[in-house]
Amino acid sequence: MRHRIVLEGVVQGVGFRPFVKKLADRFGLNGITFNNSSGVIIEIDTHDPAEVRHFADAIRTQAPAAALIETCSIHEIPQDAAYTGFRIAPSAARDTTFTLISPDLATCPDCAAELYNPADRRFGYAFTNCTNCGPRYSITRSTPYDRANTTMALFPMCANCAAEYVDAEDRRFHAEPVACPVCGPRLSMPIAEAIALIASGKILGLKGLGGFQLACDARCALAVDELRLRKRRSRKPFAVMMRDLATVARFCQIDDAERALLTSPAAPVVLLPMRHDAVFPDGVAPGLRQIGVMLPYTPLHRLLFDGPVDCMVMTSGNMSEEPIVIHNDEAQTKLSPLADSILTHNRDIFMRVDDSVARVFEGIPRINRRARGYAPSAIRLAHEVPEVLAVGAELKNTFCITKGRYAIPSQHIGDLENLETLTFFEETLRNLESVYQANPRLIVHDLHPDYLGTRWALRQPGPKLAVQHHYAHIASSMAENGLTEKVIGVAFDGTGFGTDAQIWGGEFLVCDYHGFERSAHLRYAALPGGDRAAKQGWRMAASHLHDALGPDARKIGLPCWYAAPAASWKIVDHLIAKPTIYTSSCGRLFDAVSSIAGISAESGYEGESAMLLEAAAQKSSAPDHYEMTIENDIIDTRPLIRAIASDMRAGRDANDIARAFHRSVAVMIERVCQHIREATRIDRVCLSGGTFQNQTLLADTLALLRASGFQPYLHAQVPPNDGGISLGQAVIGASWLAAQSARH
Ligand code: ZN
Ligand code: ZN
Ligand code: FE
Prior knowledge:
The protein is an alpha/beta fold and 744 residues long. The protein is built from 22 helices and 29 strands.
């Protein structure tokens, strides 16, 4: 009897077939394995179905680290001539379905061992890789994933590499980017020179995996400040690459789940709390108690640590706000003013992929920026959907295409605010549409008429659909949590265009993929100065104080009144007295409180004032909270603001105010959810929006919701911030399209 096992997911380019062969040999099975366009197929001749199930279980539990098995099905099929032994057969011809492309993978332990072994022919070789690790998405020009379709096509294999490539027993069997010092890519300067440069406090530009990077000694304050100055990067924290886990443990508090995430094939930047005794120059992460840490994820990065420096700032090679540089000539013109020297090489980067950022919360890795190591892997949906393209939001843009049962979000593109970023968006879209043979029948965009993404979408032919920002946030959470029934959505963030043309951001929705109802929201406050109010929290402080206390607010001596010159106040007072636009944004409420409490009056980067407010709250153990009242589905923030102003006047510690404020928001969320549950009987609550990157708020909110019997759902695979919007837009668009075609 012949049994066929079909495995779908990320199972190609990750050493899967050699693994299957080894396992089959151990089980003593006769059969074959091969790739087809939907994944990996295994055929086994046996009369014992239990043996097949047993074998399939072993595949699932022992699969290579980089593999991601989405589905595994077993069928009985007719048997012709019996198989003898177990072999790897050539791939089946392509059909119209598609295979997922593997993301780029961090150096595996076997390759790392070769890198440091003087007897190995790849000793010290910066481009060592195998089927378990190395570049994938960043070098793939087209599918199928073969060397000829990657940027490695320019490097004919030497006899040794070719022998490894065809040997089914070898770790490099069909490793498309396989290379060695004889036949492979080369560095532009000796590695020792680069090491010495960093050790002397200089800034090195280097060609990483998905783009150029800028590196310097993270423990040298002068170097860090110089890098910040040259990059014109205000106070936004830098990520730090550390030599190994032992080094990370010297500077950060770290648990097993965080260790596993740091050393995973995706090897993202992981946000970790700094140890109390850790000494870092303040320029690395100004004012924050957490730091973004990653481990060396390519052989080149590992080699850079063969010197005295064990912590390096590792930041994307670009001027702030522009996409990361990938071409050698571009690096010469754009990075020369930023770096003292540039270490490059001759393996081309085809797709730009920045470093990913993640954190562990409640033991689960959660992605804040989804790029290298994750993109372009897919999110499996609850059912098959029509093909659509969703162009995402303005800030932290990603787009998303749907195909069969999958949603494929692009890597992090950046803020769609300039032509360079829009070009990056278009290049990536062209690439992903071609490798996944996507043919979208609908383009979904944000409701905001002025977003570059909206304008781009409206220039394209074919049908379009506008989706409200916060609705997309919640749909994104539903999609990745596999929810299809109605949910209560709590969408808290900085900014999103509302259906009433005001700026939303403190929203309670009841929704499914077919539509939403705005059940409750934060009381509208004047937004004095539009985008400027987002950067200058003192403007929102004035707006909320005026709303809560009227003109009397100016008589209370609060730090926010000293944050701006008299000339600015004149304009702001006017804008507050005669508002042209209102906001219900929770992000802006955080900014206001941060400013009223004297913690931060201006954000040097998006969300800074709120992050500093959280950092302050973490220093306090105050047990209380402030009240907000709820009437007619409007959450009144005025009692909260009055109480905070009066606490400030009474000289209460700002950290305690910050702590109590966080709890106030959580208490309010739980109470509003209770109201909604009474009316709808829904107890599933999706928490989404950039505000929920705040760990303190998240922990407070979850504790209260769970205690009241709610089922809260969080993000993990896509970011809670606007990087997750495209997934939500895509599933809403796909449902709309399905409903349309059902009607006709
Ligand atoms: Zn490897
Ligand atoms: Zn070679
Ligand atoms: Fe948002």
